Amino acid sequence: MSPYKSFETERLIIRPTSEEDAPFIFELLNTPKWIEYIGDRNVKSVADAKDYIRTKIQPQLEKLGYSNYTIIRKADGVKLGVCGLYDREGLEGIDIGFAFLPEHERNGYAFESANEIKRVGVEEFGISQIRAITTKDNIASQKLLERLGLQFKKMVLLPNEDEELLLYEFVAKPS
């Protein structure tokens, strides 16, 4: 039993990604859209995926209590994608991100899970400012960020990158 919280929506289970998700993470990180829009993480096997989870995902979860979440459809237990809150190098504040297997896109899962992760970030983790980055040509991501209530702020360049990204931001109203 994980000491970290899972969350649910009407259709989805949102639980912290763990090493048992390695085959799924391997598949997701090697989809064409992941590589085009997020970047090649050099995960070339299930063993690499397990190592990626252990070295990139779990340390932030242990440090902050949140990180990457695997999105699972309640109806049949199928893993659809990931969504999470990330303390990303070179980006001030906490970043929300999401990615889904191609066959599960355009079903509202990204909005449903990201909207819950945004709520959890603000209400349960006390994050007052949530940011997001996306490429200029990822129109679907831009539309989803705007639907989530994030607004475009400026173009940014992350360390060791050569492509400028669009930076979006959401500031929670004090309760």
TrEMBL record:
Sequence ranges assigned to domain N-acetyltransferase in this UniProt record: 12-172
Keywords: Transferase
Record's protein name: N-acetyltransferase
Record GO terms (molecular function): acyltransferase activity, transferring groups other than amino-acyl groups
Gene3D superfamilies xrefs: 3.40.630.30
